[in-house]
């Protein structure tokens, strides 16, 4: 593939044709058409043009640079070709790291890292966050139709990027906040590697968005109705229900539940290190839990369809109270009604354990030792009682004090 030059509107234009792409980029060099040799793609030997030799040398160098860059990169997109032409014209240092290439390499290297607290690979959600950040930055560059670099990351970029993500993906505020936090991590790493000195992202206005999630929990009665549900004719639902029940009675995350084995059992207790945080927890082994573990010979399997199947299970168990929740529809906050079973997921088990334990009056410190929460702030985000339920707890406490 060749980079060619031609005169258009008395300006030298660089042009590349490839498949369906026709890339044309101005060099910024003004030149009359009659001074141009279209066959050699050079300025004619006219003595009145004093910088003729320098311009001709520059055009030849651009051709060579483009050829070398193309052989190394082989861009397949129209935008990739355009960036390659611009790179050839501006003589950018090939070793200079740009924002997108750094975001890609940063994302790739995360898969080789381990959690310093657990020694295990980083969670899939963490890897996915940085991979998607790179994709979103790439999409945003294409949307704006101009190169994106480290110096672009300022408060103006922040608001434009948020609007792009909202319009393109209808993300909720907490999801938007997740990508902003990932971008701040990326930029801090770029600064530490001396790739940029731009600190615009540290402005107080360049902040992670976070709103309290309106998640549900299942009451003790609802948990029991699910446990007693006869699913013998639906073994795929039965297995998902049983895994979910272990979470409801232990407070373990789904990934910890499916990793349970005989080595985790020590008498009447479960002893294990949590995969996400590296916290060691000791949990009382209830009869409901040991029966399920023995039922499957301590071999619980991961299931990518568990959230869908749990909704089916809870619908069969008639967990169908109407629940109103604030939801983001096309980026707008609206009040929306759901059947309660529609909101159940594998993580509902952990929230249910924490909330039901709290309602029973078990000390917060004791529950936190079992769930592995390090701070009360993070723990209380799991307590999903409404105002009346909190009032009922206070009322019962005062009743016990009455004469």
CA-atom Rg in angstroms: 30 Å
Please state the average pLDDT score.
Answer: 87
Shape: elongated
According to DSSP, the number of beta strands is: 10
**Helical coverage, percent range:** 40-55%
Main sheet: strands, sense, barrel: 3 strands, antiparallel
Supply the helix-strand structural class. alpha+beta
Quaternary status of these chains? single chain
What count of helical segments does DSSP give? 15
Order of helices and strands: EEEEEHHHHHHHHHEEEHHEEHHHH
Low-confidence stretches: none
Strand content: 5-15%
Trace the largest sheet across and list its strands. Answer: 1-2-3
| End-to-end separation | 93 Å
What does this structure look like?
The structure is a single chain. The protein is an alpha+beta fold. It is about 45% helix and about 15% strand. It contains 15 helices and ten strands. The strands form four sheets. A three-stranded antiparallel β-sheet has the order 1-2-3, covered by helices on one side. The protein has a three-stranded antiparallel β-sheet with strand order 6-7-8. The protein has a two-stranded antiparallel ribbon with strand order 4-5. A hairpin with a 2-residue loop joins strand 9 (about 320-330) and strand 10 (about 330-340). Helix 3 (about 100-110) runs antiparallel to helix 4 (about 125-145). The longest helix is centred in the first third of the chain and has 22 residues, at about 50-75. The mean pLDDT is about 85.
């Amino acid at each position: 593939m060749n980079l060619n030059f031609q005169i258009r509107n008395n300006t030298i234009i660089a042009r590349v044709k490839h498949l369906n792409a026709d890339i044309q980029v101005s060099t910024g060099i003004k030149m009359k058409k009659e001074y141009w040799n279209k066959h050699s793609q050079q300025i004619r030997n006219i003595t009145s043009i004093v910088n003729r030799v320098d311009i001709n040398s520059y055009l030849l160098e651009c051709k060579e640079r483009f050829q070398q860059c193309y052989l190394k990169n082989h861009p397949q997109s129209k935008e990739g070709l355009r960036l390659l032409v611009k790179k050839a014209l501006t003589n950018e240092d090939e070793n200079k790291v740009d924002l997108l290439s750094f975001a890609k390499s940063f994302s790739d290297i995360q898969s080789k890292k381990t959690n310093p607290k657990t020694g295990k690979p980083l969670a899939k959600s963490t890897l996915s966050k940085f991979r998607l950040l790179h994709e979103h930055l790439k999409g945003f560059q294409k949307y704006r139709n101009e190169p994106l670099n480290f110096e672009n990351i300022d408060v103006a970029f922040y608001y434009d990027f948020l609007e792009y993500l909202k319009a393109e993906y209808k993300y909720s505020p907490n999801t938007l906040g997740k990508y902003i936090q990932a971008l701040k991590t990326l930029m801090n790493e770029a600064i530490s590697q001396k790739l940029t000195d731009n600190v615009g992202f540290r402005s107080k206005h360049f902040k992670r968005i976070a709103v309290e999630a309106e998640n549900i929990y299942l009451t003790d009665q609802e948990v029991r109705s699910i446990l007693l549900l006869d699913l013998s004719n639906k073994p795929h639902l039965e297995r998902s229900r049983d895994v979910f029940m272990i979470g409801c009675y232990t407070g373990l995350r789904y990934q910890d539940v499916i990793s349970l084995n005989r080595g985790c059992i020590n008498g009447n207790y479960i002893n294990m290190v949590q995969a996400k945080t590296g916290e060691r927890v000791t949990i009382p082994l209830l009869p409901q839990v040991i029966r399920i573990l023995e039922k499957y010979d301590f071999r619980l399997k991961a299931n990518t369809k568990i959230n869908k199947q749990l909704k089916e299970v809870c619908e069969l168990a008639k967990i169908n109270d109407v629940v109103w929740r604030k939801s983001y529809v096309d980026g707008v906050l609206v009040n929306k009604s759901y059947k309660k079973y529609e909101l159940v997921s594998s993580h509902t088990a952990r929230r249910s354990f924490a909330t039901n334990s709290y309602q029973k009056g078990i000390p917060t410190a004791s529950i936190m030792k079992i769930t592995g929460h390090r701070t009360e702030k993070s723990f209380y985000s799991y307590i999903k009682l409404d105002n009346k339920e909190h009032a009922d707890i206070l009322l019962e406490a005062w009743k016990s004090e009455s004469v």
